[in-house]
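ok trying this again, last paste got cut off
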Amino acid sequence: MPRPSPQWPRYVEFAPTVLVAAGLLWDVFSPADYWGDPMLIAASVTAGALLSLRHTLAIGAVIIVGVFALTVKDGTADNSVGHLELVNTVFAALMGVGVNRVIARHGRHLDVVRTVAEAAQRAVLPAPPQRIGPLTIAARYQAAQSEARIGGDAYAVQRTPFGVRLLIADVRGKGLGAVSAVSVLLGAFREAAEQEPDLTTVADRMEHALLRESEQTSEEDRLEGFITALICEVLPGGSGLRLLDCGHPAPYLCHGGAVRPLESRDPGLPLGIGTLGAARTAPDDWPFPEGSTLLLITDGVTEARNEAGTFYDPAVQLTGRGPFRGPEELIDLLVGEVERWTGGPRDDDMAVLAVSRQGDGRRKLRSGGNGTDR
């Protein structure tokens, strides 16, 4: 039998069979006539909702044959009581088939919507290059619900004359409004990262683009539509990091078996609320040793909770798990850990960007150019 939707336990697919067996046995041993009929009707409808058309028809046929055998056993097969019972049973089987067809049609429609959403997501949020100079790069976007394929988390990698620049961001909100904000944000980042020598000016230009885009909205919407972001610059040669925090969760530096957060000394305000007039904070510089991996995340990771309500802490849970062979291995481990930690659906989307510096000091990150080293 096909498996039901992933949010249901696997044993749920056996519910129609159990209901059929229980209903027929109840009818056989009950002193009254056909007291198990409600269970048989429930079995047919449940089969239509959970199983394929072939299995739904099989369940309906078993119910019809079973009820017919009971009417023969009770001597009512040739009178109006038995005929009415068979008519009701056939109607219940047809109702299960109808439910199955409606759900199948809805599923096909949902598949089309998913395909369009995935295409939009790939267009707005393309996969970053796997390698730039001495850097190996991997990214992952995972929606909070399996049905969702589009949201407000974003990441970008841009090779510039000033080094490789990275962005990870989280737009408040979901749906098309969030996707529109992500599109504006990434476009502004790519243009500014290529032209501006310092990260503060890059952030200011992104802020300006977002405010320009929101001019048609109300003041309340502008204040509620902020974006947390972390802008990172890997210095030429890959020897160091420069981080500008715009209200975003801190990244983590993984080196050997150690994992530590790179907390900003003075976190700034999120993007999109520049009308408050606060000055942009200065970026922080950090070392980036050979063989280490920089892990950038959104709050879908740090706000994931277990059954006890405890938040997931990458520094605690990942320490001692390295060294990692590359950024993809680290992301696979992190995503698996978060899924096990929550034990079910998360409340927020999760975006992860990981960048590893290869342990070959002879390879240097060249300034300028748009190519990708493989």
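PB: full thing came through this time. The first strand starts at residue 131 and ends at 132.
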